[in-house]
Write a structure and sequence with these properties.
This protein is 12% helix and 48% strand. The chain folds into 2 domains: 198 residues, Beta Barrel (Porin); 170 residues, Porin, CATH 2.40.160. It is mainly beta. The two termini are 39 Å apart. Strands 1-2-3-4-5-6-7-8 form an 8-stranded antiparallel β-barrel. The longest helix has 15 residues. It is built from 6 helices and 16 strands. It is flat.
Length: 391
Amino acid sequence: MRRFGLILFITQLFFNNVDATNVDTLAHRLWSHEISFHYAYVVENYSVVPKSKNPFFIEFNPCVQTNGNREWHHSLGFPKVGCSLIIGNLGNKLQLGNIFGILPNLTFNTVNKSWYVPRISLGLGLAYFTKTYSENDSVNFYIGSHITALAHAAIYIQPRLTEHLELLAGIAVSHCSNGHYQVPNLGINLPSIFVGLAYHPVIFPQKFERNVIPLPSSGIKFTIRTGIGVHVLARTLGPAGTPKYAIYVNDLYLSKRYGKVSNVQAGLEINHYNSFYNYIVKNDFFKDQQQLKATVFTVFLAHELMIGRLSLLTQGGINIYNKFYDQYILMYKSEQGMKADLKKYISTRLGVQYYFFDPERFTRTNVFIGAYIKANFGQADFICAQAGFVF
């Protein structure tokens, strides 16, 4: 029941973000109900992984066509907002089991376009796996924990069958990973082809007018963002059972709105790893400034795609202080060379943020919360949650 309640909460939160106010009820929106069957393939990204035969999943996607009540509707070309429920079989019941997912998503090119113009759908959510790596089943290196992040992208066409019914046909790719929360965890990749149907209870308007809604002026803002994450001092494949440690994540940055949906950021990220500090103390490594040398300093540039109170954050940075990493390389001698050097210096982050006050109306100060996956040159490092204050 708690999981079902969480799904309802996330769905309601996501759909409440579509309109300018909550005066509109869900019943008055331009609903579309979609169901798709995906025939998938499990990419074998390691030499010893479970075999999969005929994996598939079914996607139920209740969604709402944006109608122009918000500025971001116009700026993004009137996208369709959905929240998919995914149920699937990974083609190996004993070792891989089943997958369940909840996937908030946006679909572009949905209005004023011919049926043969491809629709593009992007989503980011959570997945639940019934089977994971365990000591008794040491070949499922794909997934190390029951709950993971779920990223999804699809491209498809949508020819009309009747006034209320449309066909869906296209290709998609899904990726699941726990952000190095628990190892081993290679992550699982699921490319698929799919067919489905979309039902519209209400006939959509023939045209959506692009009426520009001006935003209040906004200057440069200063933001403090702080929170906590989980880190495992181990490689992607292990050792299994490595303990988890807290990591304290703090950011100081300046931001500026450009256009209607872009928020550009530049600042400093400070991450203190308890796992690094524990190793330093336990092995009597570094004789002085042990707390400092368990900390990584990063300068970064970031972009927020503003979607009402929600935003999608993409961030890239350079580690200007990462003293412990050289010791990490010595611990795992297989990770050397240019790739190891790039992991030492290149930092990336992907996340979702929710603002408590509407950024289109409250431009001076704001408060937000967010969830993020941090990576080193594309390899997951940790997951974290943060709260921030904009002023």
